[in-house]
Every structure is written in structure tokens, then in C-alpha cells.
Amino acid sequence: MPHLTVIVASDGNNVQLAQHVATEAGALGLTSSTIQLNAFDLPLFTLQRDAGDPPLGLQDLKSALGEGDAWVVLAPEYNGSMPPTLNNAIAWLSRDGDDFRALFRNRPVALGTHSGGGGPHVVMAMRMQFAYLGCNVIGRSLVVNKHKPVNPDSIRDVLGSLMLGLDA
Fold first, then answer.
1. 96, 52, 23: which is closest to 88 by C-alpha?
2. Is 133 helix (H, G, I), strand (E, B) or coil?
């Protein structure tokens, strides 16, 4: 049975969206886990820090991400792009090991946001980033905001498309 990892790059509304995704995943017979990037409290990536030992929690994050056959990444729009927590986690993950793309390569990924600003810019930024890292990003995304509430049918459709990527 495929395992879905829901990655949340904020607290608040995106955590609630993650709960909806996990509920719908369970209804489809998928196991799932949720990773809140804020809980790992990674220090700001710099080349000086990268020259030392990896930060505490990085290997735990990498292991947790590796358990997912597919990912749903949820993040708010932050000044027209991705939030610093997500950028920072990717920076650390992309510097760890001899083949940083191994964690990302060919992994099916769906994107979503609960954002006060509507969310299209964060979805575009995440799409470019995760595709560059080697993920297979599905075309449809989840966009929730004050004018567009959570739609369980949309979540199920996105999860269905995501799971098709595991059959390839």
C-alpha cells in the first residue's frame, strides 16, 4: 500500500488543510503521515554552517521524507513565493549526501496552499523548485483561501492523480 507524506511548511491553515488531505487519503485506503517543517527548527542555511556538522534534525527529516512513496507539499504564499521554512529545508536537504537528488528523483508530488493572497505564486514557485529537483509534479494543485474553501472532491482528484504516478 502506498504511503503518502504530507509536508507542511507553516502552522495554522495549512496544518488544517493537511488534516483534510490525510482524512481523504485514509478514505482512499492510503496510509499517510504529516511532517511539519517548523518542528525541525533547522538553522538558516549558510555555507559556513554547511562546512560543519549537519544540523540536528536533518537526518530525521530526510528519513521521514524518504518513507513517503509520494508527497503532498502544502505552503502559504510568502511575498509571492515559498515561505522561508520550505526554502531552508530544501537548501539543507540538497546539500546532504553525495547525490542530493536521490531523495527527490522521480517522486510523485502534489502541491497545495491555504493562502491569504490566493496562492498562485507559491504553487508556481514550488512547481519549478520540485521539478528542478527531479520530482514528478502533477498538474493539478490544491488552492484554498478565504474565498475558496476546502473541497474534499478536489483533494480526492489530486490524490488520485498523484497515485497514478506510482503505477508508472
1. 96
2. coil
Report phi then psi at 78, rounded to 5. Answer: -125, 105
Domain spanning 3-167: CATH superfamily: Flavodoxin domain (3.40.50.360)
Q: Which of 137, 151, 161 is nearest to 20 (CA)?
A: 151
The pLDDT of residue 167: 62
Tell me if 143 sits within 8 A of 126, measured CB to CB: no
Instruction: Give me the residue spans of the domains in the chain.
Output: 3-167
Encode pLDDT of 132-150 as tens digits.
999 999 999 999 998 999 9
**How confident is the model at residue 166, as a pLDDT?**
77
Going by their DSSP bridges, the two strands 70-74 and 31-36 should be labelled as unpaired
Angle between helices 84-93 and 58-66 (to 10 degrees): 90
> Can you tell me the distance from the alpha carbon of 99 to that of 33, in angstroms, rounded to the nearest whole number?
25
Q: What is the pLDDT of residue 168?
A: 47
pLDDT digits (tens, 9 = 90+) for 90-127: 999 998 777 888 999 999 999 999 998 889 999 999 99
